Amino acid sequence: MKIGLEVHCQLLTKSKLFCGCPNITAKEPNSVVCDYCIGLPGTKPRINKKAVDFAIQAALVLNCKIAGETFFSRKSYFYPDMAKNFQISQFEIPLAKNGWLKTGKKKIRITRLHMEEDPARIVHVGSITEAKYVLVDYNRSGTPLCEIVTAPDFADPKEARQFLQELSSILEYLSIFDPNIEGSMRVDSNISLDKNDMKEAKGIRVEIKNITGFKDVELALNYEIIRQKNMLRTGKDIVRETRAWDAAAGVTRSLRVKEEEEDYGYIFEGDLPKLTISKEKITEIKKALPELASEKIKRYEKQFAVPYSLSVSITSEPDLADMFEHVIKEIDPMTAANFFAKELKKTLNFRNLRIKDIKLHPGHIIKLLKLVINNEITIKTAEFTLREMVLNPEDPEEMLKKKTMTMIVDEKTLDPIITKVISNNYRALVDYRTGKKEAFDFLVGQVMRETKGRGDPAVIRKLLAKRV
User: Fold this and answer.
1) Which of 34, 190, 355, 377 could bridge 319 with an S-S bond, Cβ 3.0-4.6 Å?
2) pTM for this prediction
3) Quick one: average pLDDT of 39-57?
4) How far is CA 298 from the centre of its chain?
């Protein structure tokens, strides 16, 4: 099979691509628009310089060759999401081309990277198959897009999903893209079966349009593979068409016969000048590029001896990596790495949060870890405290005082608890005395449970060993 992707990424500029309207997500439909956004006659575009700079950044990290001179064209089509009946895009000479991105051990070729304006948002009233009419929200119209087109290099849908995750991470590290904004990355997936898959296959390419979500891209491609194979087995021809992914039903549905590029009638956009991108400009942008996740992972391994798996977890989002680097100025890197990759990530994932969503400060983590290092609290107590801190960030020492969660090391306090655990778990005591060493750990765990994680494990083991 052959799988290729066309990835549309919204750029995080302050204003739209060809007008001065704010580039924001508005709750009220059609509230962030101007005469240009809704395609009124006589309105003319003007280019957003920052959007061009952002696209050049993306091209550089994707190892593309940047055009010295490029221009915009009008792509004509007649759908309700484009009021002026054409989209300003790039076709003849894209901003950049011939790049690559490594996914795992494989290089995925980037055929082209170009800029264009986002169309409006079409809202189906009801399901996509049963809607009697659609509504159009022009707030999104004119949002700067960077379209990244790959070669058909993916061996399977899972590989396509991994590529998108890697691409999203890179663009987020550049601070030119926010994956948390709904619809900020939309994917057109192209797939065809070749003779290696089916003897009867004719290699007809089918496009699945506007998929949001990496998991949905994988699901849509898997469904389309099964659908096409079943058609070929029953003697039906694959039609070159555009299909939509119906996530609720888990199927693709036909939208229209696929257009060829010549059907769009590209013509030069005379209201915009040609763009000249000097070597000096490219060098300037290249020097300002930040350290990416892949580079941080290598540095953490080499500089701090942090294992690869922990480094990958820490660099999963830029703000998390930034916090880690603040924390290790005062905390041993391995201690911090384990806490970030395990306790902190687990807490964030459980609440479906990211570091940028909360007000947690590096100082909070530093104080919490110092309490653990100084044996004032256990790592389990630190985790319980962290669960509250992500929702209500405050000084962990003050929080622990309020909760009276300081570590219990006093033998007089622990002795009666150990007596209770032994009497309630006589079977585990017998198992330990007959040679089952894991029974001792079970008893330690029961004491920790009784102390709500506040007991000092070392003291508990010492006292328990005397009693059993």
Assistant:
1) 355
2) 0.83
3) 96
4) 20
